Protein: Class I SAM-dependent methyltransferase
Organism: Micromonospora vulcania
Amino acid sequence: MSAERNVADLIAEGSAAPVDGWGFGWLAGRATEERPPWGYARLVADRMTRADTALDVDTGGGEVLAEVPRPPRLLTATEGWPPNVEVARRTLRRVGATVVAVAPDAPLPFRDASFDLVVSRHPVRTDWAETARVLRPGGTFLSQQIGPGTMRELSEAILGPLPPPAQRHPERAVAAARAVGLNVIDLRRATLRAVFTDVGAVVWFLRKVIWTVPGFTVDRYRPQLHALHRRITTEGPFVAHAQRFLIEATHP
């Protein structure tokens, strides 16, 4: 098999594989990413044991919430991407969670002070005012978020040199939380090594994590994908770095 035929097959595999939900199992054996040291799923499970009513914002396919061993009395999740809504509903049946479809940037469809715990893993955008509104006094918000310049090496391999990142800074999240009256009690940061062993894994990742290369399509960036394939075959696996931060805040 020629190198060009091989790259075509790899790109085709990454293009055809489903990207529903928020699991990354398809990358097994093809890509790896370090996990943040704080263990977000474990922290969520711990907070859930103390909650009576809880909300998971931008639940994806419900992967994190489904692992909660002792769900609270009332457990609700929101999701804005239609293909994920049905995935989440199936996934979260076992923990008795209700999944509500919410349009991006729409207000949360819940009454004031509805929840004593709100969690969110990798939200598209945190609406701090809405988060504070639906939290009960004494309630907690816990979120693992994407940090600035995440996977920048991969973005630049496709797009070329980029300006310094202007969004997703942890300090701005702290300021936004405080601006709506929340008390930030914890902030942690992590830089995590990600390794891609073939260009098919890159294609699948870019289809799923759409903010890495906004507007990504294979046809649009085929020359860059071929160049990346040649780089991997001559230099070894492609390494990038994901940025994450954990923020926890309470409603006074």
Notes: The two ends are 64 Å apart (CA to CA). Residues 49 and 96 are 15 Å apart (CA to CA). The beta strands are 31-33, 53-56, 74-79, 98-101, 115-121, 135-146, 183-196, 238-250.
